## 1
Amino acid sequence: MKKTPLTHDKVYYLLSLAARARKLAFGLTAVLAALRRGKVQLIFLAADASENLARKIRHHAGDCPVVVYGTKDEFGELFFRRELGVIGVLDQHFANGMRSAIGKQTQRNDSERNR
């Protein structure tokens, strides 16, 4: 069985749950509109996103945390789109869970490298 991001990564699992709950904004236009309304709690920026996209997001993000995570193809596959460079999380509880999962992944990866 081929492993997909959804089957082995808690962050992608939480992103898919948030999508079903309609608590995500997809793409630059939707994320910027949600930022202007003060609704975005966390922003995911694909690691292979263009410099122009990254600059725009960081400029408009203000105090909202921006996490570089995944790739455009992985995000696209997860949400049945071609490519997706930026995702805004609109719910504080989902955002907290994703931050926690990212922290645990980072700790696990660090401990594996030290072996």
## 2
Amino acid sequence: MEDKPDNSKIIEYLFDPEISEILAELESGSKESSYLASKSKISEDVLKNKLSYLLKYGFVRQTNEDGKIVYTADAEKLGKVMENNSNFDTAIDGLTTMDSYLN
């Protein structure tokens, strides 16, 4: 039996402010761990820990280039989770309802 990601957990990670900021940085291409850590004001170890679930299932890849850790997002794989996940629709509906109460 193949170990598959929990789509609701992936969505939870995508809505995490720090992780979404990191993924936004990766939209334009691969970035060094040191750059992402500095930009997020966290250590490289904390960065790796925050990305661990996404790394485990290939939503983000980690490579070693010239002795430096480099992260790359798999935009296609992340996009498929967003497109195919009914939990995303539920989350949007919940946010819309909450927004209507606030306004």
